[in-house]
Design brief:
The complex is a heterodimer of chains A (about 950) and B (about 425). With about 950 residues, chain A is an alpha/beta fold. Chain A has 24 helices and 42 strands. Chain A has 4 domains: about 100 residues, Urease, subunit C, domain 1, CATH 2.30.40; about 260 residues, Metal-dependent hydrolases (TIM Barrel), CATH 3.20.20.140; about 110 residues, Beta Barrel (Lipocalin); about 220 residues, TIM Barrel, CATH 3.20.20. A 9-stranded antiparallel sheet of chain A has the order 21-20-19-18-26-25-24-23-22. In chain A, strands 1, 2, 3, 4, 5, 16 and 17 form a 7-stranded mixed sheet that branches. In chain A, helix 1 runs antiparallel to helix 2. Helix content of chain B is about 30%, strand content about 25%. In chain B, strand 2 and strand 3 form a beta hairpin. The chains are: A alpha/beta (about 950), B alpha/beta (about 425).
């Protein structure tokens, strides 16, 4: 079959050379093109395939920078022998005069799954059935999702059909891998040479080592359940790989061995989205690795951060389809964010290029490969310069894969992968005629096809028709008229033969006259016509010269598609984003009621001056020359609300895969694009602790952030934020209401023992650290050790008095203090013990009845704890309640009669104290951060609205 | 004998064997609340009011001076008196603890359950129910959940020995959950978790219409074998309301057409997160709304951050009869915050007395109980309370006394008992 196809394609390639080519092609198929002399041969005699292909009179783009006109390219045995203007042509050469056509290096896709089928996911919902906590394999790393030993070649089957699709788009080489798991193993590099076998087209079986944040579908091992778990897993794996490499491990770990031996390869991180690419880069920085990052297509929205990674990117060109907004009643389902994506995505490559980010393009994530050239054209229309476009498809991917000497350029000894095109590669009317891979031709469009488009006079049976031919040269469309009346017709043009079927003028009849002609280079043609009766006659077609130019012009105009009007981005790039990030101004609030939260109490008719983000003056009748003055007469100025317990602005909440996940941190997964940041700001909140969830007794580390809407994840973080970790007790950690029954602990009794075990291990670890001997660095145990040593604070999800008491006693045994009990709905029952221990209580105002352990929760809790001398905060745990925490604080006035000033501290100064950030925020005091809220009314009033901050 | 019962009840209360409060006795004699600012519930205020009630009914209300107090005088100078707040669309008493399945009776299996009646599962002794009263919530609609037609609700007052005593209006209406025009993808099966149109919407609406058509035929033929169908009889005849729980503008427009086609006499929209977009049509068709939670976040990123806060005002300004309700996550415990939800609406532009209507008169009208409750008006139930201050503000919502049908009810709860017990623990220790 392949022979036939090849023959068909070659038939029109220089008639003179036909015979020679024919024999060559047969040889090429029957044999390898590259010499493999030690292979036995039983089907004939050995032939030295050392004839040359020579392409003369071409415009050769040897690199994206260098163009040689009237140049010659010489190819032999799949490699470039010479290229240049004065090149000697060997005698045993097949010479093709390209007559001004262009030659470019073929494209390289560094990120595909070509020829490799992704394994199927067995179970749809990972939480269905019995949860699997341990790995399924032995001899490998303890986590099934780390599979660096995966070798793409073991899963590879060359896919001729798919290869043809790639060839059509201009690709000659692809890097391909098994798209499965967190550490995915190595990829292979294959030339898309349909005429060869794997021994010839396999350029490298270990091209790059791949990573992602996505678990393997081959295992149901639950850890990691979250993005932050995946990040922590990779981080610990690097340490373990290092420890193993130093010979400290007695047992065999094939995963680590494979990983270590592939460490020198290009390391490609399939991040999947822009924000994940930034996360991956940070992870790489910590591990001392610069990943090549596979982006998500929205890099333009956070281009500065993308730039700061200093990474090479691999960028998909999958633009979103236009959203269906034809029904105005349904259009609200499409967000501004999605509309922007649709509008801005085609400019992504241009933005990357203008910002100096090195990137390669990929077909990855395209719905169909044929979208590639279409979308690339869109990118160019939207500002991507053509040279960068070419680099991103040739030299850059070659460099990323470490193959610059062989691929992406046309130079001596490089692999003969090149395109022959009609004109400039990215011009509108360009055609890729041929895509040569390893010196073997793949014809895309017969370059000798005569372009038939134009207007003609067709004479048939004495009648004169007007024939117009439009469309692509190899796929023409016909329009036929007789005396200005349309006549149905259909044209077909293949292998130089054109057929045209002409319907009867009478449309009620289904009779056709069939015309056939062989096209030569002349503009006029004639041939045989078969009438409906079966009688044969002749016809002729004469080109109308005048029309020629006009038609060409028209055709060009039709093709011209205006570039999208790209809307400006905002920070963040969604509803209510800023057009530019706000800057700290000098502001003077005049005549406000100022709730200082300090000894001064509530000051009437007072001015507050703010400069460079700090409170600089508090007093009466203040003046400042450059300040923006805000008249706050009749209004209340307070420090911003601080939420001790939030789960907004994060891409993950729980790492539920282990009973301890001290190694994970929310700081890795802060999501600056969460609309709840904006909504919380509108409710007067300025700082929050993003806590890990309560899925396990030892949860993950917190992030403490300021709600600076529009900023990057990194800039949201408090500088030198105190270190926190979430612990949890009760129903959730014993999985009463979810999960299986196999994870220890399943009772409150077990929770205590789990803590003792982990803290004891942390202390043993400390002994090893201090011993001076080498030790395996363990992030989880180091975190726990920080707790024991007072360097990290616990915020413990808790309800029932017995377990609260337990944790305090346990902490005392290990010599540390539980910093905060959060929720602590039975805190009122042990408030005296909490005071003595020194623990704070961060509670709900009035939530209860949602589970058994909150049966005794009472809204008087805050008040009783407060009266017993516990530092009390009121928190939200909820993106709705957090935006009206002022109301929740006010409930302490109702329930238990707390004074208004103290109640207000429950959501400002006290959470600041609990978070150890009260030196910076939580009150209105000179020198503190100017995180202020101006309220229309007493902030504790249900009628108060946050007006400005 | 009677004395013995009281004695025993007293003993039990002291011994804390029962944490639930004992329902109050029938009103004896006449009571007069004197000097309070009366918030009538219809938008008006009477300063220094006198309110006289007898046999559980309001006899007289007016300004001091014009009226002579009678019977037992309750001095409420400087305080405020309100009609008992009404909480529509709750599951109070149907579930005690969300996470404990054994305590959960809020929904039945099946799609079309108009015959399912909530009232018989209503637990008058729920600790959650009693916790409503100290905040002024004295009346609630008990509504089943789930399915396309969830069932039939009833309206109760919140101080009773059993559901028969509690009922204010039995089987007041049937609840439909209108299909959603959009859905979210299942992330675990690799779908985009974003919002997308629900391609099964039209099919679901068609099925609902077919069901209602069938029911109508059964009702007309008085087919006693079709119990569920017959449960819709009152809906067709007008003595039961049809509560349509619904979201999105498009769905509401479809529902309005449905209401017209089936000539539904007392339609009510519930939730209706985009009602403001079709306010004119709602007004024109005289369709009232039990609006989505005030304390909620908008469904869409692009919505105004304060949409749920100001939504009631948008509707009221457009002339739609609107009340508020609290269905959603952790709905029962938070029903007691209904007055503060009304207060929040005030922060976003509505007047205080209008906001009060959202949980008094308007709610009573929509539920069809305004002849009995909803305002401080002569002839209505003496279901009312005295608060130290503004009852829509958390700080000043401090109830001193509350009456249901004239009965002087307990404002103690499981929670106040624990509060007192533990407060005492610490003071005694010292």
């Amino acid at each position: 079959m392949a022979v036939k196809v090849y023959l068909a394609l070659t038939i029109h390639f220089f008639v003179l050379m036909k015979k020679l080519l024919l024999s060559l092609s047969i040889l090429a198929f029957g044999h390898s093109m590259l010499a493999q002399d030690y292979f036995p041969k039983n089907d004939g005699v050995k032939i030295a395939k050392d004839n040359y292909y020579v392409f003369t009179n071409a415009t050769i783009h040897t690199t994206p920078d260098v163009t040689l006109k009237n140049a010659t390219l010489v190819v032999q045995k799949g490699k470039i022998v010479s290229v240049g203007k004065s090149v000697s042509i060997p005698k045993n050469a097949i010479v093709a005069d390209l007559n001004g056509k262009h030659i470019y290096a073929s494209f390289i896709d560094p990120m595909t799954s070509f020829g490799i089928t992704k394994p199927k996911n067995k179970s749809k919902n990972p939480w269905s059935g019995n949860l699997q906590y341990d790995s399924s394999r032995t001899g490998y790393y303890w986590n099934d999702h780390v599979r660096p030993e995966t070798n793409a070649l073991d899963h590879f089957k060359y896919d001729e059909k798919k290869a043809k699709e790639y060839l059509k788009e201009g690709f000659g080489t692809v890097n391909t891998h098994l798209n499965d798991g967190i550490i995915r193993g190595t990829s292979l590099l294959v030339a898309l040479n349909n005429e060869a076998n794997t021994s010839e087209r396999l350029l490298d079986d270990h091209t790059s080592q791949l990573f992602s944040f996505e678990k393997s579908v081959k295992s149901k091992q639950v850890y990691p359940t979250s993005l932050m778990g995946a990040i922590a897993l990779i981080r610990q794996f690097y340490l373990d790989a290092d420890w193993y490499a130093k010979g400290n491990v007695a047992t065999k770990d094939l995963s680590i061995e494979a990983f270590n031996s592939n460490k020198k390869l290009p390391q490609i991180f399939y991040a999947g989205s822009t924000i994940n690419s930034i996360r991956a880069d940070k992870l790489g920085d910590q591990a001392g690795v610069q990943y090549v990052l596979v982006g998500g297509g929205k890099e333009y929205a956070r281009i500065n951060e993308v730039k700061q990674t200093n990474a090479s990117y691999i960028i998909p060109l999958n633009y979103p389809d236009a959203m269906d907004v034809s029904d105005p009643l349904m259009q609200h389902l499409v967000s501004l964010h999605d509309m922007r994506y649709w509008n801005q995505a085609p400019a992504n490559a241009a933005v990357l290029s203008k910002n100096g980010v090195t990137f390669s393009l990929t077909t990855d994530r395209l719905k169909k490969l044929s979208d590639f050239s279409k979308n690339l054209k869109k990118a160019i229309k939207n500002g991507l310069d053509k040279k960068t476009a070419l680099e991103s498809l040739t030299t850059i991917p070659a460099k990323i894969l470490g193959k610059s000497d062989q691929l992406g350029v046309l130079k001596v000894n490089a692999i003969a992968n090149f395109l022959i095109t009609k004109g400039e590669l990215f011009s509108d009317d360009n055609i890729i005629y041929e895509n040569w891979v390893q010196g073997a031709k793949n014809s895309i469009v017969d370059m000798n096809t005569v372009d038939l488009t134009g207007s003609y006079a067709l004479t048939l049976e004495g009648k004169k028709y007007d024939l117009t031919i439009s469309g692509k040269p190899n796929k023409p469309k016909s329009k036929l008229k007789l005396n200005n009346k349309k006549v149905a017709s259909k044209i077909n043009y293949k292998n130089s033969w054109v057929t045209l079927s002409v319907s009867d003028v009478d449309t009620t009849k289904t009779a056709f006259t069939r015309l056939v002609a062989l096209i030569d280079k002349s503009a006029n043609w004639q041939g045989k016509a078969v009438l409906p009766s079966g009688a044969e006659t002749t016809f002729n077609v004469i080109k109308k010269e005048k029309e020629k130019e006009k038609a060409a012009e028209k055709k060009y105009k039709q093709k011209e598609e205006p570039p999208n009007k790209i809307m400006p981005i905002t920070f963040p790039n969604m509803a209510y984003g800023f057009s530019s990030l706000p800057i700290a101004k000098t502001v003077l609030f005049k005549n406000a009621t100022v709730w200082t939260n300090e000894a001064e109490g509530i000051l009437q008719t007072t001015d507050v001056l703010v400069k460079s983000g700090k409170i600089v003056k508090i007093g009466k009748n203040l003046v400042s020359k450059n300040a923006e003055v805000i008249d706050a007469t009749g209004k209340h100025l307070t420090s911003g609300i601080i939420d001790e317990h939030a789960h907004i602005a994060t891409a993950a909440v729980n790492e539920a895969g282990h009973n301890s996940s001290a190694e994970v941190t929310i700081e890795d997964v802060i999501d600056p694009d969460d609309i709840n940041i904006y909504r919380n700001l509108a409710g007067g909140v300025t700082s929050i602790q993003i806590l890990h969830g309560s899925a396990n007794p030892i949860g993950g580390r917190s992030a403490i952030i300021k709600l600076k809407w529009g900023e990057s994840a990194e800039n949201l973080k408090f500088n030198n934020a105190p270190k926190f970790i979430k612990f949890a007790l009760g129903e959730n950690v014993k999985q009463s209401n979810w999960g299986g029954k196999t994870r220890f602990p399943q009772s409150r009794m077990g929770v205590e023992q789990l803590y003792i075990d982990y803290f004891s291990r942390a202390l043993e670890y400390e002994q090893k650290m201090k011993s001076g001997k080498p030790y395996r660095k363990d992030i989880e145990l180091e975190t726990l050790l920080e707790i024991v040593n007072g360097a990290r604070f616990i915020s413990c999800h808790s309800y029932i008095q017995s377990e609260v008491n337990m944790l305090m006693k346990l902490a005392e045994k290990f010599g540390f203090k539980v910093n905060t009990f959060t929720h602590i709905l039975e805190g009122y029952k042990v408030a005296d013990k909490m005071r003595i221990h020194g623990a704070g209580g961060s509670t709900f105002s009035d939530w209860w009845a949602y589970k058994y352990e909150v049966n005794d929760a009472i809204p008087y809790n805050a008040s009783i704890m407060h009266k017993q001398g516990v530092t009390v905060a009121i928190n939200s745990d909820d993106p709705e309640m957090s935006r009206r925490l002022n109301q929740e604080a006010a409930k302490s006035v109702k329930y238990g009669g707390v004074s208004e000033e103290d109640a207000w501290k429950f959501v400002t100064l006290n959470p600041a104290k609990l978070l150890h950030i009260d030196d910076r925020v939580g009150s209105i005091k000179v020198g503190k951060d100017a995180d202020l809220v101006l309220w229309t009314d007493n902030p504790l009033s249900v009628y108060a609205k946050a007006e400005k901050q | 004998m009677k004395k013995l019962v009281y004695f025993l009840a007293f003993i039990f209360c002291v011994a804390k064997l029962f944490s639930q409060q004992t329902p109050a006795k029938k009103q004896l004699g006449i009571h007069s609340i004197v000097g309070a600012t009366a918030h009538v519930g219809d938008g008006t205020i009477i300063e220094n009011s006198v309110l006289i009630f007898e046999n559980g009914k309001i006899k007289v209300i007016g300004a001091e001076g014009s009226i002579t107090p009678a019977g037992e005088i309750i001095n409420a100078k400087g305080k405020h008196v309100y009609p008992g707040f009404i909480a529509p669309n709750t599951t109070l008493g149907l579930v005690e603890i969300d996470a404990v399945r054994a305590s959960d009776d809020e929904s039945e299996i099946g799609t079309f359950n108009p015959h399912i009646r909530s009232v018989i599962a209503y637990n008058t002794e729920s600790k959650v129910v009693e916790s409503m009263r100290p905040n002024g919530v004295l009346i609630a609609q008990i509504t089943p959940r789930g399915g396309r037609i969830s069932g039939t609700s009833s309206i109760v007052q919140l101080d009773a020995w059993n559901w028969e005593d509690a009922v204010l209006k039995m089987d007041d209406g049937v609840h439909i959950n209108w299909p959603s025009i959009y859905k979210r993808g299942h992330w675990w099966s690799g779908e985009d978790p974003g919002i997308k149109p629900n391609d099964k919407y039209n099919e679901a609406v068609t099925k609902l219409k077919e069901y209602v058509l069938q029911a109508k035929a059964s009702v007309e033929g008085n087919n006693q074998r079709n119990l569920p169908h017959l449960a819709l009889k009152g809906v067709f005849e007008g003595d039961k309301a049809l509560y349509i729980h619904i979201n999105s503008e498009k769905a509401i427009l479809d529902a309005i057409q449905f209401i017209k086609v089936f000539k539904i006499k007392r339609p009510v929209l519930v939730d209706a997160d985009q009602a403001y977009k079709v306010a004119a049509q709602l007004k024109a068709n005289n369709i009232p709304v039990l609006l989505e939670r005030v304390h909620s976040t908008p469904d869409f990123d692009d919505s105004d951050y304060d949409l749920p806060y100001k939504h009631a005002k948008l509707l009221m300004d457009a002339g739609v009869t609107v009340a508020i309700q609290n269905a959603g996550d952790m709905e029962r415990a938070n029903v007691r915050n209904l007055p503060f939800q009304a207060g929040t609406v005030v922060a976003h532009g509505m007047s205080k007395e209008q906001a009060l209507q959202l949980i008094t008169l308007n709610a009573a009208k929509i539920l069809g109980i305004d002849d009995q409750v909803g305002t401080l008006a002569i002839g209505k139930d003496a279901t009312l309370f005295i608060s130290k201050g503004d009852a829509l503000d958390m700080r000043t919502n401090q109830l001193e006394k509350a009456f249901i049908q004239g009965r002087d009810i307990s404002l103690e709860t499981h929670q106040t008992a624990l509060w007192k017990r533990y407060s005492k623990k610490y003071t005694e220790k010292k």
